[in-house]
Design goal:
By secondary structure, the chain is an alpha+beta fold. It has one domain: Hotdog Thioesterase (Thiol Ester Dehydrase, Chain A). The chain contains three helices and five strands; from the N terminus they run βααββββα. The protein has a five-stranded antiparallel sheet, with helices on one face. Strand 4 and strand 5 form a beta hairpin.
């Protein structure tokens, strides 16, 4: 998978007593990569909330674990836009050890919804956000 890559080091707080990464830590790594992918394209969560009255929320995520990450591993977490429609953005993601050519540890698909801040209901992606994503 190509696209945006965010490097992550595995710290003690990410692991269990045996030095193996907790399943929940993978979700944090994937979230960070999506957030940095957006930031890299000029999309700022605070500005979306204040200026456009919307927020991006995780509506669903699927993960397939292939191999464990361990304490001190350097991980490459990718994020790539795979679908953009209405009030939804879908990301395909992967986590590899050392580089994108390294061992595949996890694949993920994240469904992100655009939600109106005041109503808490889905809302179409604003033009300002679409410009940053395309």
């Amino acid at each position: 998978m190509s696209g945006f890559v965010w490097p992550v080091r595995v710290y003690l707080e990410d692991t269990d007593a045996q030095g193996v990464v907790y399943n929940a830590s993978y979700f944090r790594f994937l979230e960070r990569a999506r957030t940095e992918w957006l930031r890299d394209r000029g999309v700022d969560h605070r500005r979306l909330r204040e200026r456009d009255g919307v927020m991006l929320v995780l509506a669903g995520i699927e993960a397939s674990f292939q191999a464990p990450a361990r304490l001190d591993d350097l991980l490459c977490v990718s994020a790539e836009l795979s679908e953009l429609s209405g009030a939804r953005v879908v990301f395909e993601q992967s986590i590899h050890r050392q580089s994108l050519e390294g061992e595949l540890l996890c694949r993920g698909v994240a469904h992100v919804a655009c939600v109106d801040v005041e109503r808490g209901r889905p809302r179409r992606l604003p033009a300002s956000l679409l410009d940053g994503l395309s």
